[in-house]
Amino acid sequence: MSARLKFFRYLIFVPIIYIIIILFIIAVFDPYDYNRLILKRQKRAKEVEYYRRGDIYDRNGHLLVTTQYHYQLDLDKNLISTEAKKDEPEKIYALISNIVSKKNGANKNSILDRIKDDRFSSIFLADKLLFIDIKDIKDEICKAVQADTTIHIKKDKIINALHVTRTSAERIYPFGDLAPRLLGLAYSPEADQRVPDEKNQQSSRFLHLSGACGMEATFDELLKGEDGWTEMLYDATGKEIFKPSLKTRTAVNGQDVYLTINIRYQEILEQQLHEGLEKYGAQSAMGVIMNVHTGEILALSGEMETDKDMSIDQLRSFTNLPVSYSIEPGSTMKPVTALLALEKGLYGKDELIDCHTLELKYSDGRRKITDHKEFTEMNLEGIIVESSNPGISRVALEIGREDLYNRLIQMGLGRETLSGIYGESKGIFRPVNKWSEYSLCSIAFGQEISLNMLHLAVIYAAIANAGNIIKPQILLESKDSIGNSYNKITPQVFRTISSPNALSEMQHFLKEVVLVGTGTEARLDYIKIAGKTGTAEVISRDESGKKITKHNSLFAGYFPADDPQLVMVVSFERCKQDIHLYHYASQSAVPTFRDIVRQILIIPECDIVTKVMENSSDLAILPNLVGLSKAEAENKLTGLNIEYTFVNKKKSGIISDQFPPANIRFKRDQPVILALAETESAVIVEGKMPDFRGLTLKRASELAQIHQISITPLGSGIIYEQSIAPATAINSEDICRLYLK
Q1: Per-residue confidence (pLDDT) for residue 202, from 0 to 100
Q2: Tell me: the pLDDT tens digits for 229-247?
């Protein structure tokens, strides 16, 4: 090789080596601060993956509350223009405008004009869309593109150009207006402030629902989840930059909450309280049904007289009356005083106690304690059975204030029951050193104190279950999105009071109250009930200063009396005083209690009564009518002397649903409710969409759960149409909309 050639070779290597050295210096030492300039031009953001708020179910898996999300659909024109050929964007834009306008009813020309506006690359197409609407739009676009041979862009490229954003959420209640105060309300905070979105652009971001009251607030921490996110990096032109070091976190959905509530019990309780509220002219009605041994709350309801003027949404924002509202319990507290006397052995079984009007002298005057009628002498059982105020007052004087106070403290008065239910009231119970001279006798028959109805249920559960003060519980369990179970209910006993002999005696007293005492209106032929009435005076004054006397009417009891399973409290506040004597518990709270028990016992899953007395002529066994023609069902019910009614007015068809269900006991004067469906669609085929038409929403919800179908109810009443035709193959991703009227 010549010297000249070697010289030229070295001459070439020198600049190459120089460039390599310079690049190394720039890469390692960055003397010109290029990294800062690069980072300054890049945009880093997080793309949020929103969690799903948990659903609420009853103990049997009936869906009580779920979430419906609304979405916004936008079009990224840049993706279309870079992938499509010269004339294709115009055709694609027209196609998208036409399909979107059909779905949301907007003018297609208006949508097309927005798309053609060259000032923007991201175009708003529609909002307030459901997930199923988005799916329908995408499916129709794919079909249209596939059918148009002049469009060569791949359909998945068009779909990628459609950006879906969750914008809002609302809670849906498949059982309509059932249990509004119990379930409560979840709301979304005002989203009027503009915050950076996923690409650091200013927009209104989706805000999650938050529990405000009821079960939504009680279990808000369980129902809430945790958002996920993916780090995104964009260059100065807005294009995404791939970088392996970018981090991501998966969203964690909220847990589904399963309540101890039995929705059938809840329906019965609400219906009977509502009827009683109107019939007895009460200001409020409250009720609790609870398991005597475990503290599981099976139904919890309260209604104010003013509720009729409120919307369901307003009622969902109100408090849970049986838990948050306290009233004087009246004579329902007499058994607590008498139980203490039994423990202490103060009176023999046949020992008589003076029950004449009691006059007491105090430092500031006299007090006369009377009864609704004059009694002379009775034993302790008679005082409870006949509900004597002077009698129980003399018992309390014998017990003494310290011992009575301590027993009521053991019963939990003046404290929450620790149910954990949002908004629980402690009631009123003053320390013994704050008791007036009148207090000992007043408290003995339920005055000068107040407690909520759930607390009263706990007290009567203790009498029924051998003296255990239990924790009332409304959470059965919670489940995550893959079915793992958490927070399973465990019965909790805080303390045990009294003695077995004393409790046994008191249980006998409470049975006698229903058999021969003030609670005889609660008697049923086929089951024994035990309980105690309470009628408490409420004195107020009108605008002129005139004294007005109203009454609180209560009945607290349990059944079956010989093998207690359920405890129940029913109360009506400030009942009207008239010739019907509705202000007395014996004429209002007691018959309501009886009617609730009677209806509970006919529910199929209720096994409290295993054998009904054969001579109980007011009960009948309802045959299975589903599948019969309208005429056949009418003939069968007429022959059995059973009343019936149809929820829809079709002239023909076959029975698609019935209430009560088949083969259970029910009262003959309770009308059977029947639903009709078209003959050819009544048979349900596995894997095929059922015919929901003619069904109630409750029955439809049960069918949907069995077949694992997602439904969205629209309206109220009876289902008259559905978005997915009957007998269509079921797709797990489909949501069938049900239209009711």
Answers
A1: 40
A2: 887 776 666 666 777 777 8
* HEC-encoded secondary structure of 199-234: CCCEECCCCCCEEEEHHHHHCHHHHCCECEEEEEEE
pLDDT of 620 strictly over 80:
no
Q: What is the DSSP letter of 472?
A: P
C-alpha to C-alpha distance for 356 and 369, rounded to whole angstroms: 9
Rounded to an integer, what distance in angstroms lies between the CA atom of residue 62 and that of residue 56? 9
Look up the CATH number of domain 619-740: 3.30.10.20
What is the band of 146 on the pLDDT scale with cuts at 50, 70, 90?
confident
Cα gap 106→125, rounded to integer Å:
9
CATH of 45-259 among 3.90.1310.10, 1.10.600.10, 1.10.150.170, 2.40.10.10: 3.90.1310.10
Three-state secondary structure call for residue 246: coil
> HSE (CB half, 13 Å, CA atoms) of 657?
23
| DSSP symbols for 476-502 | EEEE-TT--EES-----EEEE-S-HHH
The domain ranges of the chain are 3-41, 45-259, 263-600, 619-740
Structure tokens at 426: 């402690």
- Let me know if the fold of 45-259 is the same as that of 263-600: no
- Please state at what angle helix 401-410 crosses helix 334-344, rounded to 10 degrees: 110
Tokens of 278: 């109107």
Contact status, residue 376 vs residue 412, Cβ threshold 8 Å: no
Q: How far apart are CA 295 and CA 277, in angstroms?
A: 27
CATH number of 263-600: 3.40.710.10
Lowest mean pLDDT among 97-111, 332-346, 365-379, 698-712: 698-712
Residue 566's pLDDT band, with cuts at 50, 70 and 90, is very high
Strand-pair category, 566-575 with 547-559? antiparallel
Q: How confident is the model at residue 582 (pLDDT cuts 50, 70, 90)?
A: confident
CB 208 within 8 A of CB 50: yes
Identify whether the C-beta of residue 637 lies closer than 8 Å to the C-beta of residue 644.
Answer: yes
Place of tokens 């054969």: 614
- Residue 714 CA to residue 169 CA, distance in Å, equals 16
Alpha-carbon radius of gyration of the chain: 35
What span, in angstroms and rounded, lies between the C-alpha atoms of 157 and 141? 11
* Residue bearing tokens 């009207």: 576
Q: Which residue from 414, 417, 495 is spatially nearest to 462, judged by alpha carbons? A: 495
Q: Is the pLDDT of residue 364 over 80?
A: no
The two tokens of residue 248 are 């991501």
Query: What is the rounded CA–CA span in Å between residue 388 and residue 82?
Result: 91
d(CA 35, CA 37): 5
- Provide the whole-model pTM: 0.77
Q: Which of 511, 547, 552 lies closest to 528, judged by CA?
A: 511
Question: pLDDT, tens digit, for every residue of 469-498?
Answer: 999 999 999 999 888 999 999 999 999 999
CA dist., res. 347 & res. 505, Å (int)? 12
Distance linking the first and last C-alpha atoms of the chain: 100
Work out the average pLDDT over 335-343.
Answer: 97
Confirm if 184 and 216 have CB atoms less than 8 A apart: yes
CA dist 35 and 407 (Å) reads: 77
Strands 530-541 and 547-559: antiparallel
pLDDT mean across residues, the chain: 85
Give the 3-state secondary structure of residue 413: coil
